[in-house]
Amino acid sequence: MEVMVLLIFFSLIVAIGFLLAFIWALKKGQFDDMLTPSIRMLFNENGKEDNNKIGER
Amino acid sequence: MFLVKDMTEIENRKILNKSKDKTSSACIHCGDPCGEGSLQEGDNYFCCPGCWTVYNLLNENDLDGYYAIENKPGLRPDRLNSVERFDYLDKKEIREKLFDYNNGKTARITFSIPQIHCSSCIWLLENLYKLNPAIQLSRVNFQKRIASVTFNINELSLKDLVYLLASIGYEPEINLSTVGTKKKDTSFRTLYARLTVAGFSFGNVMLLSFPEYLGFDAEVEASYGFIFSYLKILLSLPVIFYSSSTFFVSAYKSIRQKHINMDVPVSIGIIILFLRSLYEIIMLNQAGYFDSMCALVFLLLVGRLYQKKTYFHLAFERDYRSYLPISVTTINKSGKDTSIPLDELKKGMRITIRNYEIIPADSIFIKGQGEIDYSFVTGESTPVAISSGDKVYAGGRQMGQSIELEIIKKPSRSYLMQLWEQTEQIVEEQPGLTTMANKLAVYFTPAILALSLVTGIYWLIFDPSRAMNAATAVLIIACPCAIALASPFTLGTIQRLMGKSKLFLKDESVVEKMSRLSTIIFDKTNTITQSGAATPVFVGADLSEEQKSMIYSLARQSTHPLSVLITDLLKGSKIYSIKNYNERRGLGLEADVNGYYIKIGSHKWMGIKNKDKIEITSVLVSIDNEILGYYRIANLFRKGLTQVVSELKKDYSISLLSGDNDSEKDRIAGMFGTDAELLFNRSPHDKLSYINSQINYGQQTAMIGDGLNDAGALKAASVGITIAENNSSFSPACDGILIASEFRHLPQLLKLSSDGIKIIKVSFIISLLYNIIGLTFAVQGTLSPVIAAVLMPASSVTVVLLTTLASFVSARRRGLI
Predict the structure, then answer these.
(1) In DSSP terms, which residues pair with B358 in a beta bridge?
(2) Interface of B with A in 15-34 (CB under 8 A)
(3) What is the rounded CA–CA span in Å between residue B663 and residue B422?
(4) pLDDT value for B270
(5) Over 90: is that where the pLDDT of A14 sits?
(6) What pLDDT was estimated at residue B321?
(7) CB contact under 8 A, A39 and B223
(8) What is the pLDDT of residues B627-656, one digit of tens each?
């Protein structure tokens, strides 16, 4: 049973690590624009062959 | 630069009117139909030289991908205008206020560009560096309609950058309200962070509580139970000190203002939960209620987030400063032009106003050919011709050539601005509108405190050991989590549903205000009438085909809005060659056509005094000095207006408040009915005081208007809704923006708001029922952590599901989705 305490302890440390990473990303503004990157990633270098339409928002 | 191409080349590409079949095709750049004056290059057609220029510019710079991403994505560049228009951007003090960052070499600036509308726009704006190598990086935020550009300031001035953007149709919005108000809104980030922390703790505390829910092995509990309990305390600390601080702050503020809002009982509940759990764990070695506490805070924060639907690309707080230009061109005594910031404009200065520019301050007209379009300020639909010595007012737009004015009042003292200041005072005087949840909190909080006290005293008498337990349990279980969630979820959902029907509300509280309305007041111009749409009807002698053709030949020479209307009406007539053409802006046209001398224009142009008071906008026609009659220009009402009005008449008293003349009174009276109040020729001040008088009578009024002339009324009204042609058109400060094409849905939208209030009331009852069940346990002192952990989230989840679903159902029933 002792090992359970140890596991909980470690898993909490990992979880807190991810929590802090998320908050860091949030404060850096990585979540400020959730829409444009999804459009941007579909552009080709010259935009010629793209046919993705997102329409008016 | 590249903008104005060789005029002869433009002429060569003009499609002659004869080839009609070709003119019907759409412009490859902006998608507008190619009417007269359109150009052709290869298989592509362009509606105007502007579109053609942009198309060529993009092609030359290897940016033709713009047309591949979206079909006809372009924006027609407003007018082929001079770079001098942006001279003010060379001023150091203005420039520095605009930059986000500038180290003398590299500068970054964020522009608001409301025209951004599709993925092609993003692509083009992020490839700006291909147009000018000095641009290092440009990034678009589509949701907020902003673009930030990093560029080398030594190679490209800000003025040229803005001019470059304007020349491809993306002129940034730069005005006084954007200058000097650079603060980043980080409230969203904070809310997300609070929510994440609460969710994290909620999950982990719940996990650590599972053994208790299922029942511990006595031996295991003795050895490990305390570790779990202390871990729960640790995990709850960030929830109480960080995540829920937003409720404590709000509760504290409301108590200091001597209002009780819903956050007061919520905060009491959270704090008692925390203290009691702490006490139970440390002193009694029991389980505590940390799981319930974290769940509660998490759910409440989800509610906060859901309620906070913001339409980033719309501005609801615009005031006159965003309408006025940021700088003006002054003329000093030696006749030299200098561009100065608006703030420095003083009485007695002389300024130049170019075509399509806005007059920044009340002035005296000195010289030029003035024709001022006051439609935005007064609601008057036709431009006013002015002559030397006349007074012109701030907010008017000059149509035609440059004019010279002498300032008689500082911009801040102008007629228009004073209206604005007046409303500011009024709004401050209005008592804070309390929302339903807060109204309930006023009764709820003392009731709960009293019940807790009575329970405590009862048990002190009969069984003192239970007194503390029962009294705190009442406060815990009564924590109105579900009630606090009912409004945000209902109003938030309804706000989103209204957004789908193109009514964008400033915030969710507007829904509640909409449901209480008793009076609806409409503006006329551009609100119930379609902007730019009017049908001329000829009144007078019957015109022969030949006469029609002659009028057509003359009218098509002019770009005046009224001439364009007549041209459109007579389209298809023969075209005669004309000689001795002469146009006086604001007055009329004259020419020799087909051997006759034709004049069309105003009464003044014909040399007759307007004695019989024809107040309708009309264009007189004379051939060889014999007046044949006139074109009556009547406004076209919006589609579905009759139906909207008759629907609204059932539930509201409606009236009309127009700045325009009463020429159309009879037509409107036919729709609005005899009991509706129809008021014409009202100045912006009159409108404002009318709304105020309505409010003083205890009426909850909605003002539906559009321009600056309604600005005061929109602000003073309980709910001010602006009708806008599209997302990017200018709208004064208001509570909601309704896109004109959805005008016919107005009655249904109002009904949806009342549905929302009914839904909230029902969910209040449901959550009170849950509370009563919980309280029966609590007053007996038998509330266990498990019951609390089930009952409290269950009530919240029920309310959340119910309100969201019910809102969808009612929107469907109203035919909105």
Answers:
(1) B397
(2) none
(3) 30
(4) 93
(5) yes
(6) 67
(7) no
(8) 888 887 777 788 888 889 998 998 899 999
> What pLDDT digit, counting tens, does each position of B142-161 carry?
888 889 999 998 989 888 89
How far apart CA B322 and CA B729 sit, in angstroms, is 12
Distance CA B698, CA B694 (A): 7
Residue A28 touches chain B, beta carbons under 8 Å:
no
Q: Tell me: the pLDDT tens digits for B692-741?
A: 888 888 888 999 988 777 888 888 888 999 888 776 666 777 889 998 88
Which architecture characterizes domain B530-637 according to CATH? 3-Layer(aba) Sandwich (3.40)
Q: What per-residue confidence (pLDDT) applies to B16? A: 46
Q: From CA B14, how far away is CA B200, in angstroms rounded? A: 66
The domain ranges of chain B are 7-69, 83-167, 187-310+433-490+755-813, 320-425, 491-529+638-754, 530-637
Task: Kindly list the domain boundaries of chain A, sorted by start residue.
Answer: 2-40
Burial label, B614 (beta-carbon count in 10 A; 0-12, 13-18, 19+):
middle
Confidence of residue B810 (pLDDT cuts 50, 70, 90): very high
Contact B78, B113 (CB under 8 A): no
Among partner residues B117, B140, B197, which is closest to A56 by beta-carbon distance?
Answer: B117
Alpha-helix runs per DSSP H in B704-784: 711-716, 746-780
pLDDT for position A55: 42
Which positions ≥6 away from B422 have C-beta within 8 Å?
B685, B688, B712
- Residue in B68, B192, B197 closest to A50 by CB: B68
Note whether A48 contacts B62, CB cutoff 8 Å.
Answer: no
pLDDT at A50: 43
Per CATH, is B83-167 categorized as 3.30.70.100? yes
d(CA A1, CA A17): 25
Backbone angles phi and psi of B488, in degrees to 5: -60, -40
Of all residues in chain B, the one with the smallest CA distance to A31 is: B189
Q: Return d(Cα B568, Cα B555) in angstroms, integer.
A: 10
Tell me which residue has tokens 């249904």: B748
What's the rounded Cα separation, in Å, for the pair B112 and B449?
Answer: 51
**DSSP code per residue over B769-803:** HHHHHHHHHHHHT---HHHHHHHHHHHHHHHHHHH
pLDDT at B666: 82
Strand (E) or helix (H) holding B342 = none
Residue A1 CA to residue A7 CA, distance in Å, equals: 10
CATH number of B491-529+638-754: 3.40.50.1000
Q: Directed axis angle between helix B218-238 and helix B263-279, to 10°?
A: 140
Q: What CATH number is given for B320-425 in this structure?
A: 2.70.150.10
pLDDT bucket at B180, cuts 50 / 70 / 90 = low
Q: What is the mean pLDDT of residues B482-501?
A: 89
Q: Which residue has the tokens 């009807």?
A: B537
The verdict on a CB contact (< 8 Å) between B223 and A33 is no
Distance CA B372, CA B681 (A): 18
